[in-house]
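subagent[fold] <- orchestrator: predict structure for attached chain, return tokens only, no commentary.
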Amino acid sequence: MSTTRQASLPVYDHRPGSGPTLVFLHYWGGSARTWDLVVDRLPGRDVLTVDFRGWSRSRGMSGPYSLRRFADDTLAVLDDAGVTDHVLVGHSMGGKVAQLVAATRPAGLRGIVLVGPAPARPGPGITPEYREALSHAYDSDESAAGARDGVLTATALPAAVKARIVRDSRAGADAARAEWPLRGIAEDITGHTRAIRVPALVVAGQEDRVEPADVLRDHLMPYLSRADLMVLPGTGHLMPLEAPAGLADALTAFAAAL
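subagent[fold] -> orchestrator:
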């Protein structure tokens, strides 16, 4: 897998293989390596993973760190990597970015997989009070671990994976960590999501407390013209780390059916 670093682009990793290319976009507090356990279960597949601007290896990039900027960055990465046949796979915040990217109808986009995605229309729980509290979730290692164990996950994880979650959540630039809870999470993008014309798979975690399946049914599915909803049993919000095998199987089946 090759790593590309350019001052004007987020850092991304590209592993050549059979297509369509699966393009992975991470959650708020995650990184490209959030997808490692899934990618490891996709041998021979062409995959591309990105560290969003302001996060992990792209931490030093200047803002803004808005959803629209992340979408523009993703399109620029696809162009730089020469990806012409692809499926977008977005998790949580990355799922909202994926909706914006897909709405532009980029050449070669075959489908979109939204994993525990932030819905197009914010749910009723996204109040100003909730957003302010959320903006402090990653203020310290202790608060990040509390968010991991109390909100983000519903299954036991290996110690190394648990430590990685904390390190990644703390590896964002201050402004990048604040942008999503204070602004991006409350942005209504239904007009963009309605413009998506490729097949979509929405994957919900049965025990997800961040983006429950019921919220996705009401606040996302009505705006996708060609979408199926799949619920992964026994998993919380961090499906790429909690249920990588089930997620890899779902991706393989979705790509094969396109």
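orchestrator: received. Logging for downstream: Residues 251 and 257 are 10 Å apart (CA to CA). The two ends are 25 Å apart (CA to CA).
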